[in-house]
């Protein structure tokens, strides 16, 4: 089924079909031309023998036929040699023939005028078929006109053998030519479709985020396709910008009500209603995280940007923000990342990931949170570790499962869900494990951008 969907194989099959037809027609044409040439050549040869025999013909006074000189071709002298001559004296009834005829007499054909020539086919010795050239002559001897019929013939089996030999040799040549032309057709098809393969590769580069647009340096026939695809990418980018702007507007619109709720929570605590304040804070925090996740999903549905972002800069900035929340009071967040490390993630998405990971780590750490990185030839990894109680292996699976929750507020589950959504949008993965600090280690593996 896949082969029928291949343009390369379709073109190749069509090319082979047309090539086969052309070779067959060529073979038939060459055979016909050779046959015509052979007939002309044999006819000229028979005429030459006919003239030679007529020129050396002698008739004595009593009507005996003889030749002054036998034809030089040895086939005339070999019994059933394939080349024959015969002279009939229709006046005196004499007959003279080549040794090759042995005792066979060539049947007489239709009468023709004196000096005229006739070409015909007739049965020959040993069941053969002969091609004959005949000429009627009038030779006067002592006042008597002798009407002579001079006949020269050749075995058609020899002609057939020549034709079959030519057809066989031509078949070999055409087969070799066909093989070379088939290889040429395949090379031409592969070369002709190479721009489409280049376009497909360029689309893959755009999809992977390693390029923004398709190169317009393509053949003229492919240029409309590339232009349309670039226009589509332009439209998608504009939609992405509008989606991000709408998400930002929504976040700004929700910021004021959440800020007002936070102020009410502080007043409740000041009045001593700590339990109500804690419940409201948990609800507000859960609502904020739900909003953050939906905003993230909206942004990711409209595509991701593959601009590389300095990891150390973003980690220090988010760490300073997280250190101010009550849950991080008295805890240290260290960033062990060189300034030169770039993460192949958009800046806003990286901030979202770091914010959720550091917030969760700060909530559960005893005293320390550490941000690190690792890199291989094809992957770059972000690590956030803490010295808290960590998670059991079955709890890690729940935390990463869609909709998984590990506390009543659902904060940890939603935070990791947001991180997972963003990471998967960039072709990466999230892994939870045991940290060297004793708590939880969250590891994000992302494919590197190619230079």
Automatic annotation (TrEMBL):
Residues 249-450 form the Histidine kinase domain. GO terms for molecular function: phosphorelay sensor kinase activity. SUPFAM superfamilies: ATPase domain of HSP90 chaperone/DNA topoisomerase II/histidine kinase (SSF55874), Homodimeric domain of signal transducing histidine kinase (SSF47384). Residues 190-241 form the HAMP domain. This is histidine kinase. It is an enzyme of class 2 (transferase). PANTHER family: SENSOR HISTIDINE KINASE TRCS, SENSOR HISTIDINE KINASE YKOH. The keyword ATP-binding does not apply. It catalyses: ATP + protein L-histidine = ADP + protein N-phospho-L-histidine. The keyword Transmembrane applies. It comes from Mesorhizobium australicum. Keywords: Kinase, Membrane, Phosphoprotein, Transferase, Transmembrane, Transmembrane helix, Two-component regulatory system. InterPro entries: HAMP_dom, HATPase_C_sf, HATPase_dom, His_kinase_dom, HisK_dim/P_dom, HisK_dim/P_sf, Sig_transdc_His_kin-like_C, TCS_sensor_his_kinase.
